[in-house]
Design the sequence.
């Protein structure tokens, strides 16, 4: 079976995505500037845009039961430190770094504390597959774990992950591809190739 690709369309789509991401970044910079001036609604909009990313980064690193509280902690830290952000256009990457550091802090503070397993907590049978998949993702290297959770759990697109986290689109593509390969191997899922 022969397939053809209209490269002019593909290039146009890439330009549209790039233009969208650039305009979103400049809009984020405006929101950061407004939030620095005390505009709580502007910070609320930043929260709305970035809460899924922060949730995914934390979900890749800390117990599920702790994630929601830590998301709020990350945004409180960001609000306090917002005046120290040098480049308002770099808000996404800066916030991602705060989330990663908060996860590391959580583990430093939690040494010696036992976590309830899903069996003890009474997880339903229908959620056991999701828990198994999440645990398989958590067993992957950090770079793959984070991008896979942002893609598969948070529903973010590759370009959206790149724009929000400050990673390059190429890095996100590679991390997603290699992470999916390793996840399939862990879960014993054979990839069906097009014939």
Sequence:
């Amino acid at each position: 079976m022969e397939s053809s690709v209209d490269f002019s369309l593909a290039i146009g789509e890439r330009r549209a995505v790039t233009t969208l991401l650039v305009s979103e970044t400049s809009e984020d910079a405006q929101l950061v500037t407004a939030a620095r001036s005390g505009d709580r609604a502007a910070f609320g909009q930043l929260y709305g845009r970035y809460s899924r990313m922060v949730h995914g980064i934390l979900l890749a690193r800390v117990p599920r039961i702790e994630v929601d509280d830590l998301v709020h902690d990350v945004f409180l830290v960001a609000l306090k430190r917002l005046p120290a952000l040098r480049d308002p256009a770099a808000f996404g990457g800066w916030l991602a770094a705060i989330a990663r550091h908060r996860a590391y802090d959580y583990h430093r503070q939690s040494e010696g504390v036992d976590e309830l397993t899903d069996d003890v907590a009474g997880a339903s049978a229908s959620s056991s597959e999701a828990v198994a998949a999440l645990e398989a993702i958590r067993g992957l290297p950090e770079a793959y774990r984070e991008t896979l959770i942002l893609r598969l759990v948070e529903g973010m697109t590759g370009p959206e992950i790149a724009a929000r986290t400050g990673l390059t689109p190429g890095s996100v593509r590679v991390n997603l591809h290699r992470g999916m390969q390793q996840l399939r191997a862990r879960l014993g899922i054979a990839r069906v190739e097009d014939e």
